[in-house]
Amino acid sequence: MTSTAAGRGAEAAPDADAVVLCHDLRKRYGDLEAVAGVSFTVRRGEVFGLLGPNGAGKTTTIEILEGIRDADGGDLAVLGLDPRRQARQIKARIGVQLQTSSLYPYLTVSELIELFGRFFPRHLPLAELLDALDLNEKRDAQTRTLSGGQQQRLSVALALVNDPELVFLDEPTTGLDPAARRALWDVVRDLRRRGRSVLLTTHYMEEAEALCDRLAIMDHGRILDLGTADELVSRRFHERAVHFEHVAALDDARLAAFAGVDRVAHEGDEVLLYTSDVPATIGAVLAATDALGVQPAGLAVRQASLEDVFLDLTGRALRD
Amino acid sequence: MDSLLALTVANLRSFVRDRAALFWTIAFPVIFVVLFGTLFGGGGSADFQVGWVDQDGTPASAQLMDAFAHTGLLTLKVTDQAAGLASARDGTYDAVIVVPKGYATAVGAPRGSASTPADALALVLYVDPSHTANAQAIGQIVVGVTTGVNQVLTGQAPVLTVQTQPIQGEATLSGASYYVPSILAMAIMQLGIFAAIPLVQQREKLILKRLGATPLPRSTLVGSNVLVRLVIAAGQTAIILAIGIAVFKVQVTGSWALMAVFVALGALAFTAVGYVIASFARTEEAANGVTQAVQVPMMFLSGVFFPIALMPDWMQGVARLLPLTYLADALRQTMVGGSPYAPLAACFVILAGWLVVCFGISARFFRWQ
């Protein structure tokens, strides 16, 4: 079953390397098709991201793979096991952080970590987890007294308690301040350094760009595109734009003749030179302005981002 | 086994640290025991201090005083009206009875005329209506005695009798002996039914979902919750019994082992009722409402506060169906040798039946997410 899933997969990933195989996954809630045929593969040792707005089907997808929700259809394998029939074995080897932190309010941080440790055949020492998630100061605090960031770190600590091969993080940094967010990014990077695989969901572009080796852009229960961040951008936006404040002496005809320039556009006071050769175009701009004895004010290069990719794919901004 | 133990310890810790839960399961029943024990702990019969004002001063009025004294329910203190009312106001007397002048003449009148309104003579009973229970009880006694006297006078019934308590078996139990096992039963009922609240809370806060993402089997989860309820029930029993024995001199005459069996069976049956509530209540507020709607009527209809025999027929019909009726009855029988409402075996079968049926319903309808 796993081999057929990979064989028909949307991408040609080597099977032996895959920790998650997901082919044509479907899930319906009443009239709503929450997941409408999603296919992707997570390779061992990579951080894979599902990027999309709320309601895109990210959480449903991830929870089906975690074995806590049933799929309506699709071929699935997690660590080579079937989430429908071998959920217990999968749960022993994966780490799960749910989107909403869910804790016993009256237990302390260390009590809770120790409790979860007892649910698994094998678990990491408490001290190691407290260190890794920077929770030493709060080890004796009841969880109801923790801040949002501390609760989130604790819920990641609980996801790591069994030293899992594969970690599922569902919107791990939603609601965190920038410092707390970066601290969590470090935890994810450390997981990758130690050869663990991570499947995370996010609706933050910069998070997907910073953390994910590869990512899938999801909307309305479908994957719209999949690849590295660079691939996703360059697949749609071949050119970058050199832009600066318009200089009257340089008319469009002259600008269009600059090295590398494919197209000229205007945005307010700015002139945009779409180019396939940024250094050559910048050189031409500098030479021309120098000859005129002026400075190209606000000279910069604009590169398309995942935000532009999302806009291009769906016709709307990711965050609105 | 290891995870069952760990989870049970975690649940017990949560319980002990949650002051509200602790109050309702431990302090609340203790308050009831102390309250009812103090109010009714003095024995089966109440003893009211009543001022006796005899303005007639005849052998007939003295006879009437004897009739009242004979009931054994009132301690009569002869006084005059002014002093008697003063003592009633300062709380020394619970009531004052005034026999007006002309009593002997009235009762000596020819038969038949005493019952005509024009010649009827009224005893005056002063009570404090703010002490509702006392006022009602004394009123009952006075009506009972005067009815008897009237019957003698009118020749319709030869004997003057006052029914002290129209209850058969329970009348032999002292107040505290009745209330301690009853309130223990009530506490176990609440403990079990209130199991619905943390369950719904844990489901709403997605704690159950998070636990579902670990290899922990659901049977361990349920097992731990049940174990927690049994441990707390044991604690409740120990505390309530200790207070009953130490403060109210309740004597445990029955079987400790049988009592333990019924405490455990009761905790299990009512926890199953709690699971049924958690199966259908989606939010914590709903669960709170439903538990109250179930436990408050049950508390009053199961003979915890009033013996079932005192209830009107339709209420007795309801009481016959409620599990608390049988738990309270079984605990009274096993702890203090109370006379049975139902045989112990029947109590056992009915409680076990509730357990099985409720377990089946929640196994079918309980939602983890």
Q: What are the salient characteristics of this protein?
A:
heterodimer; A: 320 residues; alpha/beta; Rossmann fold; Alpha-Beta Plaits; 2 domains; 4-stranded antiparallel β-sheet; 12 helices; disordered N terminus; B: 369 residues; mainly alpha; abc type-2 transporter like fold; 4-stranded mixed β-sheet; 15 helices; 65% helix; elongated
Strand residue percentage of chain B:
5-15%
What oligomeric state is this?
heterodimer
User: Could you say which overall geometry of chain A the principal axes of the C-alpha atoms support?
Assistant: elongated
Largest interface: A-B, 26 and 22 residues
- What is the terminal separation of chain A in angstroms? 41 Å
Domain count of chain B, please report it.
Answer: 2
Total beta strand runs of chain A: 13
What is the fold-level CATH name, i.e. the topology of the largest domain in chain A?
Answer: Rossmann fold
Question: What is the gyration radius of chain B calculated from CA atoms?
Answer: 27 Å
Give the total of beta strands of chain B.
4
Q: Which structural class do the helices and strands of chain B define?
A: mainly alpha
Strands of the widest sheet of chain B, in order across it, are: 2-1-3-4
Element-level helix/strand string of chain B:
HHEHEHEHEHHHHHHHHHH
Count of runs of 4 or more consecutive helical residues of chain B: 15
Low-confidence stretches of chain B: 110-118, 157-172
- Label the CATH architecture of the largest domain in chain A: 3-Layer(aba) Sandwich
**CATH homologous superfamily name of the largest domain in chain A?**
P-loop containing nucleotide triphosphate hydrolases
The tally of structural domains of chain A comes to 2
Integer average pLDDT of chain A: 88
General description of the model:
The complex is a heterodimer of chains A (320) and B (369). Chain A has helices at residues 2-7, 58-66, 87-93, 109-118, 126-132, 148-159, 178-193, 205-211, 229-236, 252-256, 278-292, 306-314, and strands at 18-29, 32-43, 47-51, 73-78, 94-97, 166-170, 197-202, 214-219, 222-227, 240-245, 261-267, 270-275, 300-302. In chain A, the strands form three sheets. In chain A, strands 5-6-7-3-8-9 form a six-stranded mixed beta sheet, sandwiched between helices. Chain A folds into two domains: 45-69 and 85-227, 3-Layer(aba) Sandwich (Rossmann fold), CATH 3.40.50; 238-314, Alpha-Beta Plaits. With 320 residues, chain A is α/β, with parallel strands linked by helices. Chain A has twelve helices and 13 strands. With 369 residues, chain B is mainly α. Chain B folds into two domains: 2-41 and 170-365, no CATH class; 48-154, abc type-2 transporter like fold, CATH 3.40.1710. In chain B, 65% of the residues lie in helices and 6% in strands. Chain B is built from 15 helices and four strands. Chain B has a four-stranded mixed beta sheet, sandwiched between helices. In chain B, helix 7 packs antiparallel against helix 10 (218-248), helix 10 (218-248) crosses helix 11 and helix 11 (256-280) runs antiparallel to helix 14 (323-336). The longest helix of chain B is centred in the middle third of the chain and has 31 residues, at 218-248. Residues 110-118 and 157-172 of chain B have low confidence and may be disordered. The A-B interface holds A 66-68, 88-89, 91-92, 96, 98, 100, 102-107, 111-112, 114-116, 118-120, 142, 158 and B 2-3, 6-7, 10, 13-14, 17-18, 205-207, 209-217, 369.
